[in-house]
């Protein structure tokens, strides 16, 4: 079939690509579906981009150096640094934080501190280690 040809959406006759009304059966050709698909794709992309930028913005806001204090490089936190050097896993190091940082009774959190949901708190996601 010639590249510039298509089949009638109704009777199936081979007709020129740009044909609006089929010369064989007189039915108007459906070519909207392509446009609708494109519009949908653009809409989906837009939503995805918006979602992604929202995630990125949140990430930078909560992990920004100005917003959260780094894990102090003192003797209380040295084991965390050593564990990180050994395991290279922030998830692993996170597990040690609640031994001192818990409420009530432990090292308190500020009043507006993010609360742990289900599962472990990813302390090091927000509070960076002082690594060089
Ligand atoms: C051995 C107990 C202990 C462990 C384990 C511990 N902390 Fe702490 N942390 C403290 C104490 C006590 C303070 C109060 C400030 C100080 O004296 O360093 C503190 C303070 C902090 C601060 C505030 C620092 C500042 O400048 O005000 C952050 C942030 C912090 N810890 C994060 C963590 C994270 C993240 C972990 C897990 C990797 C962790 N800590 C594990 C005892 C601990
Ligand atoms: C979602 C991000 C996030 C996570 C996860 C998180 N923090 Fe924080 N943390 C913050 C923010 C933001 C502040 C400052 C809050 C404020 O000043 O009201 C803070 C403050 C603190 C402080 C007080 C020091 C300061 O900045 O005034 C300590 C101590 C602390 N966090 C420890 C921890 C520990 C331990 C964990 C893990 C159990 C943890 N945080 C998990 C965001 C987080
Ligand atoms: Zn036709």
Summarize this entry quickly.
This protein is mostly helical. It has 4 helices and 2 strands, in the order E-E-H-H-H-H.
Description:
39% of the residues lie in helices and 5% in strands. It contains four helices and two strands; from the N terminus they run E-E-H-H-H-H. A two-stranded antiparallel sheet has the order 1-2. A hairpin with a 6-residue loop joins strand 1 and strand 2. It folds into two domains: 59 residues; 49 residues, Flavocytochrome C3, Chain A, domain 2. The mean pLDDT is 86. The longest helix has 32 residues. The protein is mostly helical and 132 residues long. Bound molecules: heme C (2 copies) and zinc ion. One heme C binds next to helix 4. The site of one heme C has 17 residues, from helix 4.
Bound molecules: heme C, zinc ion
Strand content: under 5%
* Mean of all residue-level pLDDT scores: 86
User: What is the count of structural domains?
Assistant: 2
How is the largest sheet built, in terms of strand order?
1-2
Q: If helices are DSSP runs of H or I spanning 4 or more residues, what is the number of helices?
A: 4
- Helix share, percent: 25-40%
- Report the biggest beta sheet as strand number plus sense, adding barrel if it closes: 2 strands, antiparallel
Distance between the termini: 65 Å
């Amino acid at each position: 079939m010639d590249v510039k040809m298509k089949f009638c959406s109704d009777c199936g006759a081979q007709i020129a690509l740009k044909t609006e009304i089929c010369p064989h059966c007189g039915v108007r050709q459906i070519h909207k579906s392509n446009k609708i698909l494109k519009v949908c794709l653009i809409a989906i992309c837009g939503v995805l981009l918006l979602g992604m930028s929202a995630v990125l913005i949140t990430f930078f806001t909560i992990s920004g150096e100005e917003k959260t204090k780094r894990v102090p490089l003192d003797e209380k936190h040295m084991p965390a640094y050593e564990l990180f050097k050994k395991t290279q896993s922030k998830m692993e190091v996170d597990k040690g934080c609640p031994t001192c940082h818990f409420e009530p009774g432990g090292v308190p959190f500020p009043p507006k501190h993010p609360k742990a949901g289900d599962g472990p708190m990813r302390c090091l996601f927000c509070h960076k280690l002082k690594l060089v």
